[in-house]
Design brief:
It contains 10 helices and 9 strands. It is α/β, with parallel strands linked by helices and 281 residues long. A 6-stranded parallel β-sheet has the order 1-4-3-2-5-6, sandwiched between helices.
Length: 281
């Protein structure tokens, strides 16, 4: 695996790959890698000649400086995982490399997708996400970019950015990887105790309950029941739960056969903010 820390090194290497008409896949990450990230890499490998994994903890998408400070950065462990998974390139830039102009301005019209759910809870978050992903897209010019379903709203936001900017990139939405009990793998899980991980399973159980009953119970009643399940679960501080149509993420009032739906949930466990979701049909 080659490790590049500057944009120029990476571009020079990829230029040769493009001349040779090699397909490039990008897996953007913030590090603290786990089996979920490696599944993205494994998804990309048969579809590409070169896999580029970026590790960059992007400051513009954190609206809480303490959260940015606490974000885990086990870089040696991350490198070992990527090497074992036969990643072609690791791009490991500094903040100064990605943001040479500290006063850089960025805004993109996301048609309201950045103002609901995660966007409402974390104002400016998705503008920061699109800012850095657009930089990575321009730099790598991938044929395909792989993202995990766990950050479902983020993927819908990036799809919207691709439309707005007319980028020739295919997005792969890769399934959530869960542990044996059903807990969605997450870099933030590293901050949970064993008891916290056990308490966090309430999110998965509730999502399964919604999926099992979405065709049987009126959606407003189903949402109330699901919220009650979480609010009466030990250690769960619920932020929001919603049943939405997948492309607009507008809350659904009923199920239409020609549309796809997703249940979204966010809660704090031991003051660690966890997000999860499940596609319902």
């Amino acid at each position: 695996m080659r490790i590049f820390k500057t944009k120029k090194e990476l571009q020079d290497y990829l230029e040769t790959a493009r001349v040779n008409q090699q397909k490039i896949a990008l897996i953007p990450t913030m590090g603290a890698l786990h089996a979920g990230h490696i599944s993205l890499l494994n998804y990309a490998k048969p579809l590409s000649d070169i896999t580029v994994c970026s590790i960059f903890v992007n400051p513009t998408q954190f609206n809480d400086p303490k959260d940015l400070e606490k974000y885990p950065r086990p870089i040696e462990q991350d490198i070992a995982l990527l090497e074992a998974a036969n990643c072609t390139i690791l791009f490991l830039p500094t903040v100064e490399e990605m943001y040479p102009d500290q006063d850089e301005k960025w805004h993109i019209n996301l048609h309201g997708l950045d103002e609901i759910w995660e966007g409402k809870m974390r104002p400016g978050h998705f503008q920061g996400v699109t800012q850095v992903v657009y930089k990575l897209f321009n730099l790598v010019q991938p044929d395909i970019a792989c993202f995990g379903q766990k950050d479902f709203q983020q993927v819908m936001v990036i799809e919207q950015m691709i439309k707005e900017k007319a980028l020739p990139i295919t997005i792969a939405l890769c399934p959530i990887i869960r542990d044996d009990n059903g807990l969605a793998l997450s870099s933030r899980n590293m901050r949970l105790s064993e008891q916290g991980k056990h308490q966090a399973l309430a999110l998965f159980r509730t999502l399964q309950f919604i999926k099992n009953n979405v065709q049987k119970i009126d959606l407003a009643e189903l949402k109330k029941m699901a919220i009650n399940q979480l609010e009466t679960s030990d250690g769960i501080a619920l932020e929001y739960l919603a049943i939405c149509e997948t492309t607009t993420l507008q809350e659904a009032t009923g199920i239409e056969n020609n549309k796809q739906y997703v249940a979204l949930v966010t809660a704090r466990v031991e003051d660690v903010r966890l997000i999860d979701n499940m596609i319902l049909n």
